[in-house]
Design a protein that fits this description.
The chain is of the alpha/beta class. The protein has 8 helices and 5 strands. It is globular. Thymidine-5'-diphosphate (TYD) binds next to helix 4.
Length: 210
Amino acid sequence: MNKGLFITFEGGDGSGKSTQITILKQNLEKAGKEVLITREPGGTEISEKIREIILDKNNSEMDDMTETMLYAAARAQLVAQVIKPAIEEGKVVICDRFVDSSIAYQGYGRNLGDSVNIINSFAIGDCMPDMTVLLKVNPREGNRRISVRNEERDRIELASEEFHQKVYEGYLELEKKYSDRIVGIEATDTIENIAAVIIDRVNELLKSKK
Ligand code: TYD
């Protein structure tokens, strides 16, 4: 049986990932693909419990390394329980955030550097995305978009502007470093234009995998 495809979405808070994930899913399903959507941190019962601990704004004393390892633990469980089996079954798996989030937020944002790569290599093994969509929004604009939503901010969203700026710069470096895998798109473009670029690139990938 043909193996499936693994696509991840990345971007700062308020970059419009979920809208684009929904549009891509609908398109792939129209084309007859079986699509599985999941998110990080979360996506399994255990990972959702870990998510609650990580994002709880009362856990303000959390050490950066603890944070990194909790994200990696949630990820290991999601890979083993959901992502790997679905790819083996030939599905297209779309994940809202994955390992690049840890490299950007913990590696660059929290200044933990390469240790984040090493820890995550144990969590994911060879389960790397075939393609990663990076929706680029500068932290000021992202912050404005979150404010409009009027939702309570989680522990990460409450982190400083300087932190979010480092995360953004980290993403830009990842885009350069992994230009074969990461498709960077300005999130300020219209929903339709962004969706069209994503669908084109996914179709190219599907063709090359045949
Ligand atoms: P979530 O509400 O899922 O954010 P979003 O809707 O922006 O995707 O919360 C996840 C938060 O966790 C988000 O601020 C990014 C952060 N994060 C990390 O810091 N490291 C990680 O490895 C992951 C997956 C997320």
